[in-house]
Specification:
Two copies of one chain form a homodimer.
Chain A lengths: L5 H18 L5 H8 L3 H14 L2 E3 L5 E3 L6 E7 L14 E8 H4 L4 E5 L15 E5 L9 E6 L2 E10 L4 E5 L8 E3 L3 E12 L2
Parallel strand pairs in A: 3-5
Antiparallel strand pairs in A: 1-2, 3-4, 5-6, 6-11, 7-8, 7-11, 8-9, 9-10
Chain A binds a DNA duplex (30 and 30 nucleotides) through α2 and α3.
DNA sequence: GATTAAATAAAACATATGTTTCATTAGCAA
DNA sequence: TTGCTAATGAAACATATGTTTTATTTAATC
C-alpha cells in the first residue's frame, strides 16, 4: 500500500491558510487545486480525509479552515473616547468593533477602554494605555474592576469587606487613598493592558 | 418615486456582520433573505446597491463584508517559549499564529514574544508580559528594539552613537548599566506590551 | 520487465448559489 | 377612487462549486 503524499497535505493546509489570510475567506476546491498544482478531485479527497483527521475543518462551499488557525476571535467593543473618566459600558456607545484572538485573551464579551489618570500606575496601567475589560457584574476579590462610583466609571482594585458592610476600592498608587463605598456597580474586570511603545 | 427601505439595508448589514461573527464566513443570499425576512432577489438588489455605495463589499459566492468590519487583521507569529532569553525570530520557530486588528496595532509582520527578566521595567515591560514586535532590521533612535547581542536576543532601547562609532543599548532599569556595542542586528521594534491582569 | 494496487486526473454529474425575468403588489398623487 | 410608479417575490435561468465515476498513470513488488 502506497502512503498518501504528506507533502501535498501540507501544501493544501498552507495554501488554505495563506488564501484565508490574503482574502479573508476560504478558497474553492479548484483554486486550491490550481494553487498546489493538483486536481480538483484529489484536493477534494485530501480535504475530506484531513477533515476526518481533524487537521482542518471542511463544511461546504468555500469553507475550509485549518485547525491550526484561530478562527475563534472574541468580538471587542470600543466605545468612543470621552474627555474625562471612563464611559459607561453601554452597547449604544460602541463606535467600533475589533476582534482579538481567544487563545491570547480568552472569551468575551470584552470592551476596550483607554485608561485616564494615574490611579493604577503601580498595577502597570498608565495614562493612555488600552485596558481590555471583560464585561461582568461580579468580580473576585483582588481583581482590577471597572466600578461605577456615582456617575463615573473608574478602574480600581476590588476588595469587598462584608464584615464591615462595605467595599474597599484600592487605587494602585501609594499617593492615593482607598475609597470605601456601601455598594457599587461592577461593569467589568480588567483582563489585559495594551501599552503602546511607539 | 419611492425611497428604498433604509431599515432593510440596516438589517442586511447587521445580519451580515453577525453571521460572519458567528460562523467565520459570509452568509449566502438565501440565508440573508431568510434572516431579514425578505426574498433572495430583493437581498441581491440591495447588496448590489450597497456594494456600489461602499456600504459593504460584495464579490461572489459567500463573500459579503461590511465596510464597518475590520477584516484586515495582521498575522502574528508566536515562537515557542524558551527558557532563558528570547528566541531568534525565525520562521521555523513559529508554533502558532494569531491575528490582531490592524486598526489597533498597525500592519505587520509581527511577532509576539514573552518578556523575561526585568531590564525594561521602567518602560512598563515586566517579566512575563507579552511584547508585540514588528519585524524590521532598522529602527529609529529611542525605540525599544529586539537586538541580537552575541547569540541572545534582548529588549533594549536603541541609541546609535555614530559619532562614537558605537551603539548604546539602554535597559530601562536604573540599576542596570547601558550596553555599548560596535554593531548589532536589529530583529524588530517593540510596538506594544500586553500585560495580563488576571 | 510483468503484475498489482494505489493514487491520480478528466469527465460527467449533482447541487447550491447567484442573477435575471416578469407578473404582482404596495404606495403615492391627482 | 383611479392611475401611475416603484419595489417586491416567485419562478426560470445561468453559473459556480462540490461530488462521484471511470479510465489512466504511477510506483512498488516480484
Amino acid at each position: 500500500m502506497r502512503s498518501k503524499d504528506k507533502t501535498l497535505m501540507a501544501a493544501i493546509e498552507r495554501f488554505v491558510c495563506e488564501y484565508a489570510d490574503r482574502h479573508g475567506y476560504s478558497p474553492s476546491m479548484q483554486e486550491i487545486a490550481d494553487g498546489v498544482g493538483s486536481s480538483k478531485p484529489t484536493v477534494y479527497r485530501y480535504i475530506s480525509q484531513m477533515n476526518r483527521d481533524g487537521i482542518l475543518e471542511y463544511s461546504g462551499v468555500r469553507n475550509v479552515h485549518s485547525a491550526k488557525d484561530n478562527p475563534s476571535a472574541a468580538r471587542v467593543g470600543i466605545p468612543g473616547r470621552v474627555a474625562c473618566g471612563l464611559p459607561k459600558l453601554a452597547e449604544e456607545n460602541i463606535e467600533e468593533y475589533v476582534k482579538l484572538p481567544v487563545s491570547l485573551f480568552g472569551e468575551g464579551p470584552f470592551y476596550l477602554l483607554t485608561a485616564s489618570g494615574n490611579s493604577m500606575i503601580e498595577a502597570g496601567i498608565d495614562d493612555g494605555d488600552w485596558v481590555l475589560v471583560r464585561q461582568q457584574d461580579t468580580a473576585e476579590p483582588g481583581k482590577v474592576v471597572v466600578a461605577l462610583i456615582g456617575d463615573e466609571a473608574t478602574l480600581k482594585r476590588y476588595y469587598p469587606e462584608p464584615e464591615n458592610h462595605r467595599i474597599r476600592l484600592h487605587p494602585e498608587n501609594s499617593t492615593m487613598e482607598d475609597i470605601y463605598v456601601d455598594s457599587c456597580e461592577i461593569q467589568g474586570v480588567a483582563v489585559s493592558v495594551f501599552k503602546d511603545l511607539t
